[in-house]
Write a structure and sequence with these properties.
Blueprint (H helix, E strand, L loop, with lengths): L1 H19 L3 H12 L11
Length: 46
Amino acid sequence: RRLLDELGVAYKRRLAALLGEISPIQAERLRQLLALIPTDREPPSL
């Protein structure tokens, strides 16, 4: 569990860095692709 927590922080930091480097069009496409991935949780209501 501790390993996952530590990797999660590093992963989130790297993901944030990558997201800062992509264009708005790429960000929207990524959002669309991620929306296709099934998860256990309900999607947040907008």
